# Entry
Amino acid sequence: MSSAKHTEAAGAITKAESTYNTDPSPASTDAVRIIKPRPLLKPEYVYDGARGIANGGFGRHVRQTPTGRFVKNTVVMEGKGRGAAYTSSAVKVPDVHEWLLSSGLAGTVTTTGGSEKWDFTPTAGTGTPGSQTTWFYGEGEVWKVNGIYSDLKIVGDGIGIPRWEFPFAGTMTTDPADIALPSLTYTVPTVVPPPATNITFTLGNLTAGKVRSFTFSLNRQYDGARVDQNSANGHAGFQPGPRDPVLECVVEATSLQGTPFTATSAYDPWSLVENATSGLAFSMTIGGTQYNRWKLIFTQCQVADAEPVEDASAAVRKLVIKPYVVGDQDNSDLTIRFD
Amino acid sequence: MSGTTVAWRGVTITIPPAIANETAEIVEAYELAAFAKALRVPTDEVLRLKADEAAAVQAARAKGPEALAALAFPDLTPKESGHE
# Structure
């Protein structure tokens, strides 16, 4: 009697696509570490084959073959740096690199000695959005998902390691297959992701704010399905769309700061919203060691909303911070930096 | 997809997607050639500049964070020369 398919023998390998929806055959060295809850993939179909109720009766007709197979789910990872200098474009950020590139962001690496960094900034509207293929190993099978576009959410709901969540959609032209989990090579597995403690948080002049939690949502449209009657699969992939980035953070209340409504240790959330105070610079740094830290940077932003929330210890405010662009073809609203 | 941008000492090159998917050796060889072309110098000169840079970073690290923070390398952007 064969043994049951193991639930813990799981992994994933990810590779950017040179041509959209064309499998670039990721290798075992392209492994990305997905944390739980792992995505339990389920095939979905644009046309599910259902043909409706039989005439003169209450039964159902035989189903047609479904077409337009795709997969939608979410992978969760931990953000961390390389632990060493980014000396070339081949020295990538561990785990999240290709998923950031499929989330409507483009990567720029600076290799100048001592100040190496990767900057991920929104892909220009006139540019080509990045896509990737991921082979998911789990439960004794491999699922090859192509043409993946994704969204991004970074959740820091305490002082632990923030979670990087990537909701995604991709096509599936290859059927799942039985396979034993191969030997996968992960990037710098001994580098430990930095937790959300001793972070730096800057909003305008406010640098001493006490942050309880944060959630950054890129809110990038990624799953506009492209039905294709001309193809055997019936599905030409997905079309990504605009983004609506927002940072929600819970910060301890302070004395209400007069104009310009932020100071080193005080802020007035109500006036920031009422006046739509613009031109605020925002940055948040997680991790204190060069090459194992990341930053969320808004070149310019506003506080779009504020409300009091329940907290057991002190008065706190939930701030909704939204970056904005400064021109119709500008993409300077946000940067995710690993330096 | 659009290429990956590499910035070094004021010079910027773009790695095409097809090259970015190759092995690290191929990517780094492409970068070397692309920087040499952008700077209008031989590849050996690029390697020498990078080696000098790495040595300076290592020496600064040994001295401490202040020395590392003070480290600055001159811009290498080729200057357009005037012609009579």
Notes: Helices of chain B lie at 17-20, 24-39, 43-63, 65-70.
